[in-house]
Design brief:
By secondary structure, the chain is mainly alpha-helical. The protein is about 55% helix and about 10% strand. The chain has 7 helices and 3 strands. It has a 3-stranded parallel sheet. The longest helix has 13 residues. The protein is globular, with a radius of gyration of 14 Å. About 5% of the residues have low confidence.
Length: about 110
Amino acid sequence: MSPSMLQAFYNAIDVFVNPTLRLQGLDLTLMEAMMSGKPVMASRFCSIKGSIVVDDEFGFMFTPNVASLLEALELAVKEGSRRMSQRNPALQVSAVFFFQNPATLADDI
């Protein structure tokens, strides 16, 4: 997909939902959504929560099952306007994650 198509996609959504059912590595789609200033909704796996900032401030996490996903979707609808107002913090955090030199990050640890 071209960068302009990706940009159009992320600009058209309010919340990015990534309902994966299995562990995975660093998730580029979640980072892209955050770079676009979108709150994210993702399965609660340590590989996602541990590598991507997914917190109440930036989005929603759910256990990888239908009932938990439905509960998170209902919460997103209920709290949608509050979460939409938090796009800028999500964008700022993800921009630091993407654009800071990894060697500099290691120095901070």
